[in-house]
Design a protein that fits this description.
By secondary structure, this protein is α/β, with parallel strands linked by helices. The protein contains 11 helices and 10 strands. It has a 3-stranded parallel β-sheet, with helices on one face. Helix 7 packs across helix 8. The two termini are 32 Å apart. Bound molecules: glutamic acid. The site of glutamic acid has 7 residues, from loops.
Length: 325
């Protein structure tokens, strides 16, 4: 079987929190336990929210935990650059491929118009676009273009996309009602995550996408983009999100549970591997001394299911009871 290629793709809008680290760990194990490679890509598309300092700290955190990568970050590699902010020319070419298929149209709706007219919401709480600009005539486009620059949207087909998630099992989404016509490039010229992530994973030869559950509902539209752009569709595995003890989702912006915070509570990177609650589910007691000793008991390509015991070997963690969901 071909060696898997996985990736870490953090957005440098804050320090990696416990949930990001958990997801990174599973992504790393899923690739490395099968002799694969890992790519580190810096998803700094939105320069206003991204800071170099966070990207560098993400590398230091992954490094401290022994989650080594083979390409990207300080290593470079055949698909350089690995910073999305440096790849806009490449995204333009990808967008042109979609334009050539008649799939892209300009959208002049303001944020206020979108909010006023876009109910009901798509499955992930995003606004479902009502298609107001879907069928503008060339004259209307020319006239509206004089007043404001448009965003660009993908015209989604009347299709249901199904796939099997490595962790959550069979999934299906009817595109028009599940995600609607989605944005490929914002009106300020910044490429959308959905286009950039597919183009990059496709071009970088990623075969296995392991990431947080918050992106599960984005996967069907991404599968559509893989097909339209002519890239093989990778495997997808979404990991449960960690919650804070008050039930809130961890957020980079809140500075929640950064690695330095965790280490300051008395955990060394070495003990992190043993103390991590997921080892209670992955491995037998006693906790393993290092990451490679977990390979034999890592359950294949996915993370452990919610039926696994999540509380073993995790004393001292605020999140020990809210891991699986
Ligand atoms: N850049 C995204 C994040 O930091 C992850 C995107 C992905 O894995 O597809 O949340």
């Amino acid at each position: 079987m071909a060696r898997p290629v996985g990736r870490f793709a953090p957005t440098p809008s804050g320090y990696l929190h416990l949930g990001n680290l958990f997801c990174s760990l599973i992504a790393w194990l899923a690739a490395k336990s099968r002799g694969g490679e890992m790519i580190l890509r810096n998803e700094d598309l939105d320069v206003e929210r991204s800071r170099k300092e966070y990207a560098l700290q993400a590398q230091r955190d992954l490094d401290a935990l022994g989650l080594f990568w083979d390409q990207g970050g300080d290593k470079g590699g055949p698909h350089s650059p690995y910073d999305q902010s440096q790849r806009f020319d490449f995204y333009r070419v990808q967008l042109e491929k979609l334009e050539a298929q008649g799939r892209v149209y300009p959208c002049f709706c303001s944020r206020a118009q979108l909010h006023a007219a876009s109910a009901p919401h798509a499955s992930d709480g995003e606004l479902l676009y009502n298609g107001a600009c879907r069928d503008l005539t060339p004259e209307q486009v020319a006239e509206k273009s004089r007043a404001r620059s448009p965003a660009l949207r993908l015209r989604v087909p009347e299709e249901t996309i199904a796939f099997t998630d490595l962790h959550y099992g069979p999934q299906a989404q009817h595109l028009p009602t599940g995600c609607g016509d989605f944005i490929l490039r914002r009106s300020d010229g910044v490429y959308a995550y959905q286009l950039a992530v597919v183009a990059d994973d496709g071009a970088m030869g990623v075969t296995q996408v392991v990431r947080g559950r918050d992106l599960l509902s984005s996967t069907p539209r991404q599968i559509l983009l893989y097909r339209l752009l002519g890239y093989p569709v990778p495997e997808f595995g979404h990991t449960p999100l960690l919650l804070a003890s008050d039930g809130r989702r961890l957020s980079k912006r809140d500075g929640d549970q950064s690695l330095s915070g965790i280490l300051s509570r008395g955990y060394s990177p070495g003990t992190w591997w043993g103390a991590w609650p997921i080892w209670g589910a992955c491995c037998q007691n006693p906790p393993p001394p290092g990451r490679r000793s977990c390979f034999p008991s890592f359950p294949g390509k996915s993370c452990p299911g919610r039926t696994s015991p999540c509380r073993r070997g995790c004393s001292g963690w605020d999140d020990r009871d809210t891991l699986c969901g």
